[in-house]
Amino acid sequence: MQFKYFQQPERFAQWLAAPAKCTFCEAEKTCLDGTAFLGTDRFNAICPECLLSAKLLAQDSYTCEGDIEALKHQLQLRKPEKSTKAVRQQGL
């Protein structure tokens, strides 16, 4: 299994201990723990094939939650010519 932004998911991802029914394709197979994903819609399991075919896009789900305040601070350091207000409002 190869993902652009996640090396060796078979080693480092949160897998369910036993085969489960994939929330998306409904097949019973080895799945990732869906409760580990963030977003507005919750689900229990996702198989690698559904993950690879971008099923999470329709769910508005993702695997990490960035620290927005830290990012804005970093942007302010990179763009000192921009006002703090501009960075906070526009993320410039």
Describe the structure.
The structure is a single chain. This protein has 92 residues and is α+β, with helices and mostly antiparallel strands. The chain has two domains: 9-59; 67-92, no CATH class. 35% of the residues lie in helices and 13% in strands. The chain has five helices and six strands, in the order αβββββααβαα. It has helices at 9-12, 48-52, 55-59, 68-78, 84-90; strands at 20-21, 28-29, 32-33, 38-39, 45-46, 61-62. The strands form three sheets. A two-stranded antiparallel sheet has the order 1-2. Strands 3-5 form a two-stranded antiparallel sheet. A two-stranded antiparallel sheet has the order 4-6. A hairpin with a 6-residue loop joins strand 1 and strand 2. The longest helix is centred in the last third of the chain and has 11 residues, at 68-78. The mean pLDDT is 82.
